[in-house]
Amino acid sequence: MEHVTSTPTTKAPAERFTGDVYLDMIVTPAEPARLAAALVRFTPGARTNWHRHPNGQTLYVTDGTGLVGTRDGDVVRVSAGHTIKCPGGEEHWHGATDSTLMAHIAMVVGTADGDGTTWLEPVTDEQYAAAVNGSR
Is 93:123 a contact under the CB 8 Å cutoff? Predict the structure, then answer.
């Protein structure tokens, strides 16, 4: 057993996120396990770039209100206690609303090469505004 009493908070890399986002890694993939999990905190308006995971991603919202969007324009508004499952290969993004913080635990089953995430281009301000105004 390993008792981890604290994890450092780091600022998420600007090449993968818009706005201020902070990460606390819970677990990093290590053979033979391939689970990666992190507590991710988004300030209002902050969001990930478009991205995909070969084995999918599960998001568990712990605080605030956020948005999760897909390439087909589907956007879901999420709040504390909600779980979102993104299937393998689906291009998506997630982040806070324009007026509230949002935190979630992001969980990914990676590949032999790490967490397997393919990072793509930023979500544009126009795409984000449409998501804020049209989320269900």
Answer: yes
- Euclidean distance between CA atoms 61 and 104, whole angstroms: 4
Tokens representing 67?
């948005």
3-state helix, strand, coil in the chain (%, to 5): 5, 50, 45
Choose among 71, 126, 75, 79: nearest CA to 100: 79
Is omega for the bond preceding 44 within 30 degrees of 0, making it cis?
no
Average pLDDT score, the chain: 94
* pLDDT at residue 118 greater than cutoff 80: yes
What does each C-alpha distance from 92 to 3, 4, 9, 85 come to in angstroms? 34, 31, 24, 11
> Is the pLDDT assigned to residue 46 strictly greater than 90?
yes
Neighbours of 124 (CB within 10 A): 11
Q: What is the distance in angstroms between the CA of the first residue and the CA of the last residue of the chain?
A: 42
Q: Which residues pair with 107 in a beta bridge?
A: 37, 58
d(CA 35, CA 17): 22
